[in-house]
Design goal:
Largest sheet: 7 strands, mixed
Distance between the termini: 14 Å
Radius of gyration: 20 Å
Order of helices and strands: EEEHEEEEEHEHEHEHEHEHEHHEHE
Protein name: Quinone oxidoreductase
Number of helices: 10
Keywords: NADP, Oxidoreductase
Helix content: 25-40%
CATH class of the largest domain: Alpha Beta
GO cellular component, one term: cytosol
GO molecular function: mRNA 3'-UTR AU-rich region binding; NADPH binding; quinone reductase (NADPH) activity; zinc ion binding
Number of domains: 2
CATH topology of the largest domain: Quinone Oxidoreductase, Chain A, domain 1
Length: 323
């Protein structure tokens, strides 16, 4: 048995219940890990609320780091005592958990556990956005919404390191300096400025090459209006609600635009792709190109408070639960 945050019925943060949970011994192809830090992400709130369907009951969360304490049959290359991390594997909000060995990522020395827990899902999201969805080239210009958020702080730093011009949006004055310190060359406060007008001004009327939009419904059309002709709209999240496009012709009218809705599952279909992305992320962090900001920590049993803060957009950087 272990202690975990369990969702029996989907709903608000109150649906996260701290209780005893049976872990069991690892089966073939599995390892059991004792977790040292657990990441909190927006997708966790979508699963808890029922926006993304998950069969109940389930242990919330999908990202963490810890030490291997048991290994099942048929597992090669992972031993008891190894430090491993993972992302996008449901069941993270627990002191101990079972994990498919193929999803266990060896963690190099020199990285703090809180850093690692905060960067796997967000960092690998930034990786596929910048290297796979649109292989970002030096000299290109991007618009990144929620630049002071967990993915935003990583992606904007990495984009700058690649030589891109980064324009970010934030929702408060105090987040402007944070975004400027983490890769953005210019920052727009969307509560006080007209985002489209400001982007057009900054780009001499041309628009940006790519918009990265994890906000969703509230920013979708604004994002389209910020693109150059044949630019790419990357809609990768639903923080403000799900995007609906009843009229596909809007893409034609706004400049023969491209639109994609990427997910990590499509970009990391196997262990080879997963380790390729993780190693690129680890190198970026170890080199100093990307700094990981863990700005909020909560006890595991206080996961509901973490969700409330995240959904209220009261946080910057990453949130980590400590088992």
């Amino acid at each position: 048995m272990t202690q975990a945050i369990v969702v029996h019925r989907t709903g608000g943060p109150e649906a996260l219940e701290f209780e005893e949970w049976s872990t069991g011994e690892p089966g073939p192809g599995q390892v059991r890990i004792r977790q040292t830090a657990i990441g909190v992400n927006f997708i966790d709130t979508y699963q808890r609320s029922g926006l993304y369907k998950v069969e109940t009951p389930f242990v919330a969360g999908g990202e963490g780091v810890g030490t291997v304490v048991a290994v099942g049959e048929g597992v090669d290359g992972i031993s008891v005592g190894d430090r491993v991390a993972y992302q996008s594997v449901l069941g993270a909000y627990a002191r101990e958990r079972l994990l498919p060995a193929e999803k266990a990522i060896p963690v190099p020395d020199g990285l703090d556990d809180r850093q690692v827990a905060a960067m796997m899902l967000k960092g690998l999201t930034a990786y596929y956005l910048l290297f796979k969805t649109w292989p970002l080239a030096a000299g290109e210009t991007i618009l990144y919404h929620a630049a002071a958020g967990g993915v935003g702080l990583i992606a904007c730093q990495w984009a700058k390191a690649l030589g891109a011009r980064v324009i970010g949006t934030v929702g408060s004055r105090d987040k402007i300096e944070l975004a400027l310190a983490n890769g953005c060359g210019e920052v727009i406060n969307y509560r006080e400025e007209d985002v489209v007008a400001r982007v057009r001004e900054l780009t001499d009327g041309k628009g940006v090459d790519v918009v990265y939009d994890g906000v969703g419904k509230d920013t979708f059309e604004t994002s389209l209006d910020c693109l150059r002709p044949r630019g790419l709209m990357v809609s990768f999240g639903n923080a403000s609600g799900v995007v609906s496009i009843p009229d596909l012709g809007i893409l034609a009218r706004k400049g023969s635009l491209y639109l994609t809705r990427p997910t990590g599952a499509a970009y990391f279909p196997g262990r080879k792709e997963l380790l390729e992305g993780a190693n690129a992320l680890f190198e970026a962090v170890k080199s100093g190109e990307v700094r990981i900001s863990v700005n909020h920590t909560y006890r595991l049993e206080d996961a509901a408070e973490a969700h409330r803060a995240l959904e209220a957009r009261e946080t910057t950087g990453s949130i980590v639960l400590l088992p």
